[in-house]
Amino acid sequence: xxxxxxxxxxxxxxxxxxxxxxxxxxxxxxxxxxxxxxxxxxxxxxxxxxxxxxxxxxxxxxxxxxxxxxxxxxxxxxxxxxxxxxxxxxxxxxxxxxxxxxxxxxxxxxxx
Amino acid sequence: xxxxxxxxxxxxxxxxxxxxxxxxxxxxxxxxxxxxxxxxxxxxxxxxxxxxxxxxxxxxxxxxxxxxxxxxxxxxxxxxxxxxxxxxxxxxxxxxxxxxxxxxxxxxxxx
Lengths: 112, 111
Known about the structure:
The structure holds 2 protein chains of 2 kinds. Chain A is mostly beta strands. Helices cover 0% and strands 54% of the residues of chain A. In chain A, strands 2, 4, 5, 6, 9, 10 and 11 form a 7-stranded mixed beta sheet that branches. Chain A has a 4-stranded antiparallel beta sheet with strand order 1-3-8-7, with no helix packed on it. In chain A, strand 7 and strand 8 (74-78) form a beta hairpin. Chain B contains no helices and 12 strands. Chain B has strands at 4-6, 10-14, 19-21, 23-25, 32-38, 45-50, 56-58, 64-68, 73-78, 87-95, 98-101, 105-110. In chain B, the strands form 3 sheets. In chain B, strands 2, 5, 6, 10, 11 and 12 form a 6-stranded mixed beta sheet that branches. The radius of gyration of chain B is 13 Å and the shape is globular.
């Protein structure tokens, strides 16, 4: 069974640009969550999607958005990038109901 | 506000020392609790989880955790750490569809 796949693994972008990250969950998992990981801040919850609907949202500005497709794949978009957006972005999938999360390897975004 | 707190940011131990990492949460009601580990350069992996039943749960690699409901705590323990346990450890709480993580504790084990 394939794990959670995130692409790309690494990205370098310039301030002001926008970026789209992709996440393919484990087959059969319908929930996808996104997290931002930075040193000292741990994992900050961005949002969670289930069956193409956003169910939960963390405390991030509107520049951070996401969506989920009918095949459960999810994308996260960050517009007008800032230096502080440099982080490891993690995607996790679950079956959707009170179960453990399985994580991808993450996309490391560097904003210069 | 609902939160997950991990008390130690960085713990340094010698091999064979005992480990206890603290985790407290502020959610009320029924919760599911997890400890995840992130080894250097690897993705987050589940160490152990608690959903219900025996509050002392055992996970992989000799780790265990105890759920104390009255203290809103879920501390992680290991009697004797190894150099290979060097990693970052995250406590997580799941309430319904909402899973929140603590800030993480970096464990360094000196050989």
